[in-house]
Amino acid sequence: MMASKTYRARRLPAHGVESGWEALLPARTPAPDLDRAITVDVAIIGAGFAGLAAAVRLANLDPKLSVAVIDADQVGRGASGRNSGFLIDLPHDISSGNFGADAVAKSHNEILIARTAIQHYARLAEEHGWDEDVFDPSGKYSLAMTDAGTEHLEAYSLQLKSLGEPNQLLSASEVEDVTGTRSYRSGLFTPGAVMVQPTALVRAIADVFQEPLRLYERTPALAIESSSIGCTVKTPKGEIRAGRVILATNGHAESFGFGKGELLHVFTHASLTEPFMPTALGGLRKWGATPATPMGTTVRRINGPDGDRILIRSRYTYHPTIEAGAATIKSASDLHDRKFADRFPDQRHLKMQYRWAGAMALTRNSVPLFGQVADGIFAACACNGIGGTKSTSAGIATAELLVGHRSKLGDIFRSFEKPQTLPPRPFTDVGARLNLAFREWRAGRE
Ligand SMILES: Cc1cc2nc3c(=O)[nH]c(=O)nc-3n(C[C@H](O)[C@H](O)[C@H](O)COP(=O)(O)OP(=O)(O)OC[C@H]3O[C@@H](n4cnc5c(N)ncnc54)[C@H](O)[C@@H]3O)c2cc1C
Q1: Are 275 and 307 in contact (CB under 8 A)?
Q2: How do residues 227-269 score in pLDDT, each as one tens digit?
């Protein structure tokens, strides 16, 4: 008799309060939930960057494949719809440590992963006429608040040059021309990043789904029965019988028992101001800046019909239950207000209108949970906080793996080592919290 195994979801996602991005968009009618039994070639669990990219790539590689994507919530409510909206084409932090041949090769691989994702969205943007409010290939800034940050940017600039990557260092007054504030010491512009409205982006992808791609929202996967000849995904009112299943549930892979003891559930937090008159702050009306050092504060200015707003993203918190409570959001809020006032002292009267948090899944050795994890089940999860690009490419690489399509991207994903096991829970809990607090302290004003 054929052996089968059932993986039950011990927990379902709870994404928390509405993000500012979602609040700024008109209400959307979600796709229907699944209310019957269906049979498809591939079932994808999770409609974030990874799951949506896997579906689009499958359709593109084999338009005859029937694919059903389900999400426990509505599209755009998960991390992919509530992030800061930077699709970054370059490694975050090649400026620390030894920049030897291995680091160069690794950086080239990271760039290929990131640019494959960006090209994937650029193609969709062109095909479907998305405007710059959804997908804006504007480049991005890295901004320094301190001398140490400036040194970091200078070293980073040199290393980007040695990789052949164009970039431009900016003085304090050049940064002021962009941001309208004199608070920053220096900056670095890199042209290849794309700024997106994350909720609008994932909604736009969901909206291009057509047969044989199907989307079911508000349809949690409660269990996956797996066997070598196929899988069944159980949902509250139906089930999906599928040849293969792609698990694109980010940290909730662990809720099914995959990546157990390997995933660190870290949240990060964002606040968005009330709108202000564009003339109240000089500089450009749209820009995005990541911090000079990795654990610092991300800032964006966005514009809309009711005025301009500033987004602040800062603080990482550890939540092994994959849920962040109100107290954590409140503590991040106080920090955001300080970071905002430090950067925009003349605008400190502005109130934050929206505050939210979102889940990321990290691994100790910074590799994704990728590839076959059980009979018929493939994971594209845990993309370590740079999911805008890495989750997208993990989804693409998983789709390629399923249909046997060889590519350099797939080779890179297959070459990743497996996620390392974390120390037992109480040690990991204490270590993760201390580590995040220490790194935030070290980032200082950045
Ligand atoms: C505030 C914030 C700012 C960030 N900024 C950036 C940034 O600027 N650039 C960047 O690259 N990254 C950023 N990130 C990280 C990035 O958003 C994530 O890495 C990325 O969205 C992960 O995508 P994903 O598709 O792997 O997972 P997710 O977006 O988490 O999608 C997983 C989906 O699976 C669904 N799911 C889970 N369990 C089940 C189940 N049992 N049944 C059905 N569905 C299920 C969830 O509802 C969810 O929609 C940020 C994250 C946050 C929170």
Answers
A1: yes
A2: 889 999 999 999 999 999 999 999 999 999 999 999 999 999 9
